[in-house]
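User: Design a sequence. Structure:
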């Protein structure tokens, strides 16, 4: 082959380009699909139609909860027990009970049921310690007929 002579572009060249291009596209698609399936913990809502029918009742419950005026702060102590501080209009709220669950965000760990004991005015502590990692806690706090729902990520 001498300088200045061009190689001819054949059908085999075009075939190699197309096979390489679509091979890369398929490899990326399969990789992304595998990553998505391995990290997705499940559905957000099992039946969107049923969820849409409950929407107004969920809004009413949220308005009732807002009218309570409760401020709830959840945090982890050094032993990974959940500490709750409950106030109503700036003062500690006594006589509150709480139950709930700790859910792993990706569904890789088992759900952890939670129960709480009062440790002072407006303060509760979970009986169970959470394992290491990030958890989403879903709690129901009750005082008489009043119910306050809390969803909080903890790490």
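Assistant: Done.
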């Amino acid at each position: 082959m001498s300088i200045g002579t061009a190689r001819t572009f054949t059908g085999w060249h075009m075939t190699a380009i197309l096979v390489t291009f679509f091979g890369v596209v398929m490899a990326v698609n399969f990789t992304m699909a595998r990553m998505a399936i391995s990290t997705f913990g499940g559905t957000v809502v099992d039946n969107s139609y049923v969820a849409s029918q409950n929407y107004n009742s969920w809004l009413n419950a949220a308005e009732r909860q807002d009218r309570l005026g409760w401020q709830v702060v959840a945090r982890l102590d050094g032993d990974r027990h959940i500490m709750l501080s409950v106030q109503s209009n700036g003062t500690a709220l006594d006589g509150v009970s709480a139950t709930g669950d700790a859910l792993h965000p990706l569904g890789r760990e088992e759900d952890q049921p939670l129960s709480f004991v009062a440790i002072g005015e407006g303060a509760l502590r979970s009986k169970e310690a959470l394992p290491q990692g990030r958890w989403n806690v879903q709690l129901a706090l009750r005082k008489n007929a009043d119910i306050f729902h809390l969803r909080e990520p903890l790490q």
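The chain has a mean pLDDT of 89. The two ends are 67 Å apart (CA to CA).
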